[in-house]
Write a structure and sequence with these properties.
This protein is an alpha+beta fold and 238 residues long. The chain folds into two domains: 59 residues, no CATH class; 124 residues, Aminopeptidase, CATH 3.40.630. It is built from five helices and 14 strands. It has an eight-stranded mixed beta sheet. Strand 9 and strand 10 form a beta hairpin. It is globular.
């Protein structure tokens, strides 16, 4: 992996209301949008707790709160727990295919149904094909769409970035009526298994917030490392 230039300009957003914690304000810093980005740049910034959203690479930088913690899983050491074994077994009838990221109407239709059910009035409703692709993909990123099908019907799509010796789980959307299958959790298990097959060291899982209940599932994937005070540290599930 090559070194980055000595410095990268970062641009901060104004404070806005936090989407995850009540009574908190949030600020985000972005790597210079004019910086030439590729897998190498993406990988090195991920090592500093950054994450991709569309064309942008960002990291929370809130003045009064340090609750957002970047997380990654050590793939080779992962072992299924009892609930994960059930989820894995329950979904063995799915057909899974991995494709380079490109627009498919079938994917977008599923995404619309998922957003309408899971994120109504959350700022993501009424997506367009353009906003959908701008959110999940970009020209410079090595991104894949993993399709999960049941009886040939598309039931889930996981979006995965390939980094240098790591994968980054970008987003997953799935059929809302199949909640009993735990498709979101199964998608992570599949990404871990895929990473093991490829000899990948880490799977980045995005940001975890201890006080945010909807992020608690991330701690089910162990052993994890958390990026705290400028370095990656072992994290034990409590």
């Amino acid at each position: 992996m090559n070194n980055l230039p000595l410095s990268i300009d970062l641009f901060a957003t104004p404070e806005t209301t936090c989407n995850y914690l009540p009574d908190q304000q949030s600020t985000t810093v972005f790597a210079d949008p004019n910086l030439t980005k590729d897998k190498n740049v993406h990988s090195i910034l991920a090592l500093q707790g950054f994450r991709r959203s569309g064309e942008y690479i960002y990291r929370p930088n809130c003045q009064a709160c340090q609750a957002c913690i970047s997380t990654r899983l050590r793939v080779a050491d992962f072992q299924l727990n009892r609930n994960q074994r059930r989820t894995w077994k329950r979904n063995q009838d799915l057909d899974i295919q991995i494709h380079p990221a490109k627009f498919e109407q079938e994917h977008f239709d599923l995404y619309q149904r998922y957003i309408a059910t899971r994120h109504e009035d959350g700022g993501m409703d009424n997506p367009t094909p353009e906003s959908y692709m701008q959110f999940l993909t970009c020209e410079w990123s090595d991104t894949y769409f993993i399709e999960f099908r049941l009886d040939q019907n598309l039931v889930a799509v996981a979006v995965l970035d390939a980094l240098e010796n790591a994968f980054s789980a970008v987003y997953t959307f799935f059929a809302p009526h199949l909640s009993q299958r735990s498709l979101g959790r199964f998608a992570v298990l599949y990404e871990i298994d895929f990473a093991k097959q490829k000899g990948i060291e880490y799977l980045y899982l995005g940001y975890w917030i201890k006080e945010c209940q909807k992020m608690s599932y991330k701690l089910d994937y162990q052993p994890q490392e958390h990026f705290i005070r400028g370095r990656w540290q072992n994290a034990i599930k409590k």
